[in-house]
Amino acid sequence: MVLGVQCGSESHFRGLVMDTSAQLTTAASQLAVLGHPTRLGIFRVLVRAGCQGAPVGDIQQILDIPNSTLSHHLSRMS
Questions:
Q1: pLDDT tens digits along 22-68
Q2: Which residues, other chains included, contact 17 with Cβ-Cβ below 8 Å and sequence gap of 6+?
Q3: 63: closest CA among 39, 47, 27, 32?
Q4: Has this prediction a pTM greater than 0.85?
Q5: Which of 10, 12, 5, 14 is nearest to 52 (CA)?
Q6: 5 Cβ partners below 8 Å, 6+ apart?
Q7: Which of 62, 60, 53 has the alpha carbon at shortest distance from 74?
C-alpha cells in the first residue's frame, strides 16, 4: 500500500481560505490528530514523499516503529 498527499493543480491550497466556523472547527480537528509525535512523523514522511506517496513499509522503516504501532496511528489519521 502506498500512502500520499493529494496533488493536483488546484488542490494544493484548497482549504486555506475558510469562510465558516464549521470549516475552522473541521480544520482544527484534523490538525489536532497531528499532535502525537508518531503521527506528525508519518505526516512529515508523506509530505516529503510528495505526490508519489510512500509505501507503508518505508514509513515503518523510516520511523523505526512496529507495524502494529504504524497501523494504529494510520487508523487515527484516516
A1: 888 988 998 999 999 999 999 999 999 999 999 999 999 999 999 99
A2: none
A3: 39
A4: no
A5: 5
A6: 46, 47, 49, 50, 51, 53
A7: 60
